[in-house]
Amino acid sequence: MDIVLSGIRSTGNLHLGNYYGALRNFIRMQDENQCYFFVADVHSLTTHPDPRYLHENVKNVLVNYLAAGIDPEKSVIYVQSDVRETFELYLFLNMHAYMGELAKTTSFKEKARKQPENVNAGLLTYPTLMAADILVHNADKVPVGKDQEQHLEMTRRFARRFNNFYGVEFFKEPVAYNFGQELIKIPGLDGSGKMGKSEGNAIYLADSPKEIEKKVKKALTDSGPTEFNSPKPEYIENLFTILRVVSAPEVVQHFEDLWNRCEIKYGDLKKQLAEDIIKVTAPIRERIIEIENDESYLRKVTTEGAEKARESASKTIRQVREIMGFKPF
Ligand code: TRP
Which of 78, 87, 174, 210 shows its CA 20 to 30 Å from the CA of 282? Predict the structure, then answer.
């Protein structure tokens, strides 16, 4: 069985785009692999988050993942800051990570531009911390989005460099986990682009049916098509894109036909869309409410997760120390 490691940004609640883009695939991934899922709270420190909200954000991500079907019986689920071995490996890997290569990482250059008043060393060494997350379990595979491919490439380079320097075949070179199908991208309801938290156009898994109805009702439309079989403008196509994901094929066809005959009523389309989004999210939302109020369950999951993760990580650290020449007296 492959070891798969998945790092999750601790940015709070998840939306429909997260669900169809990654989360739903993760649930299947658990059956064929030994999966580790962790919430990357230490990585979030690079932007100096307010300590009052740090825990809440970690909790929200955790609750959303568990509610959607990430299963602590099948996978190891933990919080990054609980596994101190990661930070030891981070320090060791930093001794073999060079200023030049770190400074030219795309994510570093972007962040340095965005927060010129806070270009800290944690930002520079973000890729070494991510490499430590992965290598501390000697993972085979890592599911990553486009924006993280360079970091994974650097992880492979750090692994290779460590092996070469110490003359060992110790670290594996982790590859991207391939879901074997086109990832579904969910657009926003505001006309163009994708659904995103920072875009402010997201429908959250935790949203109530009322909130979802309100958000869908506000989606950008126009006065309707005037020519038979005309192409749809992007903002209407986006509504159909989401409909294709959440609704039955007959329902989609029904609205396609209405569009083509210029008989579409956007009010009806939106009503249907909201209803079918609610069908998908309602059971997850119910579990979110249940889990977020169950402190003892959350404590149990994170405690047991940290124990299992530290077991795997400390095994790696013991061997790394030996390879590097540390010896007890
Ligand atoms: N950098 C990743 C992101 O922004 C999160 C992350 C941290 C991660 N450590 C990881 C992802 C290790 C995969 C493996 O999405």
Answer: 78
